[in-house]
Amino acid sequence: MKLVQNESPKFTKKHMDFLKKYEKSYGIEISQDYYKKEINNILNGEPSPRCDSDQRCYEIFEGELYLGDIIVNEDNEIDILIFDEHTGNKYAYRAIKLFLEEHYVRGVCFEAVVRGKNNDKEKIKKVLTKAGFRNVETSKEGNEIWVYN
C-alpha cells in the first residue's frame, strides 16, 4: 500500500457518486443542482477541486489500484474515503496506520469525527481504536471526536 499526495485533486464522477451516496456520513449535503453541475463540469473536462486550499489529499493505492483518499485539514482532522468496491479488505485501517507512520510527529494530535448519522459508525470506531485513536468527546448530536497523539 502507498499514499500519494495529490496537490490538486479534482472531482471525478466516482467521487461525486460516492459523496452523494454517503453525504450524511460525511456531514455534508449535495443538492441535485450542485451534483448535476459538477457532473457537467467533469464531462466538459473542467472538474472542480475536491479539496479546499487548507486541506491535503493523499490518494490510497494498493499496487496500481486506486482505493480512495485520506483528506487532512489544517487542524489535522482526518477524513477517509474507501470506495465501496474495496471495503471489507482492511484498507481503511492499513491506510490510516500508514498515514500515521509517515506523518505523525510527537506532540501533534490527529483528530477524526465519527458522525452519529453514519451507518458504518461501529465499524469506523473499531478501525480507529485498532489504529490507536481514542474517543474523547461525544456531542449532543451524537458525533464522536476521536484523537491520536
Structural class: alpha+beta
Main-sheet strand order equals 1-2-3-4-5-7-6
User: What's the structural domain tally?
Assistant: 1
Looking at the structure, the CATH topology is: Aminopeptidase
Organism: bioreactor metagenome
Protein name: N-acetyltransferase domain-containing protein
Quick summary of this structure?
By secondary structure, this protein is of the alpha+beta class. It is 33% helix and 29% strand.
Please characterize this protein's 3D structure.
The structure is a single chain. The longest helix is centred in the middle third of the chain and has 13 residues, at 91-103. Strands 1-2-3-4-5-7-6 form a seven-stranded mixed beta sheet, covered by helices on one side. The protein has one domain: 3-Layer(aba) Sandwich (Aminopeptidase), CATH 3.40.630. Helix 4 runs parallel beside helix 5 (121-131). It is of the alpha+beta class and 149 residues long. The relative contact order is 0.15. It has five helices and seven strands; from the N terminus they run E-H-H-H-E-E-E-H-E-H-E-E. The two termini are 23 Å apart. Helix content is 33%, strand content 29%. It comes from bioreactor metagenome. This is N-acetyltransferase domain-containing protein.
Features:
149 residues, globular, N-acetyltransferase domain-containing protein
